[in-house]
Amino acid sequence: MLKQMKKDASFISGHINTGNQSIPIIKSQLSPRDHIGSIAVRLGYSRGNYRVKPGLYALGKPGEFSPVIVTANYKLTVDIVRRDLDGQNLWILVIDTAGINVWCAAGKGTFGSQNIAKWILKSGLNDIVKHRRLILPQLGATGVAAHTLQKHTGWIIQYGPVRSRDLPAFLKGEETPSMRTVSFNFFERLVLIPVEIYTGLKFMLITLSATVFYEVLLYLVRGEFHFTTIAPVIGGFIAGTIFVPLLLPVLPSRYFFVKGFFAAVSLWVPFVLILNPDLFTAISSLFISGSISSFLAFNFTGATTFTSLAGVRYEIRAALPFAMVLMISGLITIFFVRS
């Protein structure tokens, strides 16, 4: 907790005394430390602990009629919001989502009606502002029952734009259709690749180590070493962590675990053309790389706008059996080839 308070203090410039409370004032300008932290967390380092202390914060010099923006306590999210609201005078209510961004927290239930109501009360917001209007991020709408929240708290819910950079215009009443459009373009998918690689690396190393160990034993016993067994493991990892996000819109199927399989196919074709393996080795390579890529692609599901909550639930039930069947089929085929 002390370590977290020190992190929070780095972007606090002072305090506003209002009523019986002292509200921290946060800076809108990001420091070099903030940028370094952003790069580190995008590479997957300490992602689960990159959070700020939940509660009410002031940006600029807000008063009792200033807008109230609600967001998650994932520090990367807070940093983006405060940066995009530079020059504004308003309140930012940061609720405890266990350090998870708004989109994912809404799906998990931590960015929801009960939690928001809890932090309205806990922050003392009722005593600080005289209006009763909260601006929530549109991407958090899936976790919030606005009518229920209004009924229990008396606060009217208004959904802001998809991107926080549009908030200044939104607050001026300059709303446009593009503010409500959710995008997931090539660049937005590209920046997620380092995290996908980092999170899948442990799985990759375990699988690759097991494969190399098997091939070394085979070499000691039979004097044979087959790179065509190791290549599909590496190829499956590359396909699942890099090809899936880059090729997402053009890969067949609406389901990610199936997209992962076809991403592996896109690497398997040149593998077959270059190494020219026998038929059974080619088939086993497709099964193994497809299994790994399918499993890794499934993990990508909740980070996108390409599927619904019902779709995620279906993938949870279907992805693992699909990947296991492919892997078992690949191992059986290898056994048949080596016999």
Structure commentary:
- It is a single chain.
- This protein is α/β, with parallel strands linked by helices and 339 residues long.
- It folds into two domains: 2-182, Rossmann fold (3-Layer(aba) Sandwich); 187-338, no CATH class.
- It contains 14 helices and seven strands.
- It has helices at 2-9, 32-42, 75-84, 102-108, 113-123, 125-128, 146-153, 167-171, 186-190, 193-222, 227-247, 256-275, 279-299, 309-338, and strands at residues 12-18, 21-26, 55-59, 68-72, 90-95, 133-136, 156-159.
- It has a seven-stranded mixed beta sheet, sandwiched between helices.
- Helix 11 (227-247) crosses helix 13.
- It is elongated.
- The quaternary organization reads as single chain
Q: Can you tell me the number of structural domains? A: 2
CATH topology of the largest domain: Rossmann fold
What is the CATH architecture term of the largest domain? 3-Layer(aba) Sandwich
One letter per element, helices H and strands E, the order comes to HEEHEEHEHHHEHEHHHHHHH
- Regions with little confidence, pLDDT below 50 for 5+ residues: 1-6
| Lateral strand order in the biggest sheet | 1-2-3-5-4-6-7
The largest sheet, given as strand count, sense and whether it forms a barrel, is: 7 strands, mixed
* Structural class by helix and strand composition: alpha/beta
- CATH class of the largest domain, please? Alpha Beta
Mean pLDDT: 85
- The beta-strand count equals 7
Q: Provide the gyration radius in Å.
A: 25 Å
Question: Can you give keywords for this protein?
Answer:
single chain, 339 residues, alpha/beta, Rossmann fold, 7-stranded mixed β-sheet, 7 strands, disordered N terminus
